[in-house]
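Per reviewer request, we include the raw input and output of the structure prediction for the construct analysed in the revised manuscript.
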Amino acid sequence: MKTCAARSGGTVPAYAEARWDGPGFYPADDSSIFDGAKLRVQIKASRPGADPVLAQRDFAGVEDRLEDSSSSADYRGSYRTATISHRAGAGALADAVLFLDWQGDGRGYQHHDYTASPTV
């Protein structure tokens, strides 16, 4: 997972890009791997302790990409979110959380946190 933030005056644009090498035991283009998947991009104010969220957006398009494969069932792929932006003071950063709900496991969405971008 790569999470990127930049600064353009008082505005901070951010996006996330996920890359994976998925399992080899599913049939090609198996749309039943997940009950749901989404990638959340957040813009946060960098503060001591917990960083408060200033803006966030979920991108459900990652599910289709995760369940897509080559004709030989190779589930290697990537997904890049659209850019979100928010007016933020000094010391902002971007963060990403991947939510996966594996089909039929009964556990609902499980979250996977990743390293935030550098502070901008």
